[in-house]
Amino acid sequence: MATLLGGIRHIPDQLDRPAQEQLVEQIRAVVAEAPLYVPELPGTGKPMSVRMTNCGSLGWVTDRQHGYRYQPHHPVTGKPWPPIPPELLDLWERFAAYPKPPEACLVNFYADDARMSLHQDRDELDLDAPVLSISLGNTCLFRVGGLKRNDPTGSFRLSSGDIVVIGGEGRLAFHGVDRIYPATSTLLKNGGRINLTLRRVNP
Ligand code: SIN
Ligand code: FE2
Is 150 helix (H, G, I), strand (E, B) or coil? Predict the structure, then answer.
């Protein structure tokens, strides 16, 4: 593939199986309090195929009327998001190397037929902080390009326990998930993939 922009790093195999299982347990607890919901694209209201929730003082949400944004409460229950588990804060310390803690952890759940089209993460006011991504469950094909939508892209697989750092020069790189490879992991009993992204929102 084309070389990755500076600041984008794929770090495979960072979480061993027990650490992955522990994270899944913690995400289950988050989901019990803040249920996965179906996000809608701004304007059209078209449902995304990925289901979402968050933990942290802020969560990233989208719906037809108000579009992409961060807010302190769940869009369906109206309750504050549950806190970010300490293990995820530790991963931020290790891999983000950023002085301020993350405010949001977006939890994306991909059924085996879900995907995410090419986009930039640019709803954060602090673009000096990287986005830290953690993959759990089935392998996906991750696509990443440049700072313009039409720049050439390349793709690679993300497996359970892999980490991606999207920062520096590549902080606003276009990226997406082309597909999930079913039955490539035994971590999630009913298949699918979980992606966690830790984000610093405010400078
Ligand atoms: C995202 O861009 O929000 C998700 C990336 C991923 O699922 O790996
Ligand atoms: Fe993203």
Answer: coil
Which of 107, 133, 178 is the best mutation target for the ligand 1 pocket, counting ligand atoms within 8 Å of the beta carbon and taking the most? 133
> Which domains, from first to last, does the chain contain?
8-199 (2.60.120.590)
Give bridge partners of residue 26 from the DSSP assignment: none
- Predicted TM-score (pTM) of this structure: 0.97
DSSP strand pairing (175-180 vs 116-119): antiparallel
2: confidence class by pLDDT, cuts 50, 70, 90:
low
Calpha distance 105→92 (Å, rounded)? 11
**CA separation for the pair 61, 84 (Å, rounded):** 16
Question: Can you tell me the distance from the alpha carbon of 25 to that of 124, in angstroms, rounded to the nearest whole number?
Answer: 28
From CA 4, how far away is CA 95, in angstroms rounded?
A: 17
